[in-house]
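haha ok so turns out i had the wrong file open the whole time. this is the CORRECT one, sorry everyone. sequence first:
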Amino acid sequence: MSQKLKDQTLSSEVQAVALGSRVTTGTHVTTSDLSDFDDRIRRTLSAAWEKKALDLTVLDLRDIASFTDFFVIASGTNRRQVQAISDEVVEQLKQIGTRAARVEGYQTAEWILVDYGDFVLHVFDEKARRFYDLERLWREARRIDVSPSGAEVSNLKSEMSDLKSDALDQPERDKPRSLTDL
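then structure:
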């Protein structure tokens, strides 16, 4: 039986249980399996976890919106954390050659929007997230509440450290030695 057929025959709740996740009802699916996501979205989630983001959620908008495929939504507890989360995501994706098309709301840091075209990162402070409630506004979207399992976080951290060590392994001639070398 093909994986697609299996996915169609099992309810989202049964799939979530099979993946070892907590079950939610309705159109919400909670999963700890990140392999379905694009590498850039996985890196976004990993970078957000690294900065201790809260309530990470991915909304799959492919069937209901034409301007983007996914929203990645995260919360921080204060202005500095909200900025740190968005900074880390921008930096991690820049390292793999993906640059944000635009960033909005950085100075006030109540709601920072980082647009990557096919997905948009929204980092909120807790009060703004409750007020704007994108999950309710886009309730027709498939919702994936992402909570890291220990193994997946370890794998993602390992991938991130491999990237960092690869950058350190660059030959000396490729590294600027002073500001005039830039």
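The beta strands are 28-31, 54-60, 70-76, 102-104, 111-115, 119-125, 142-146.
again sry for the mixup
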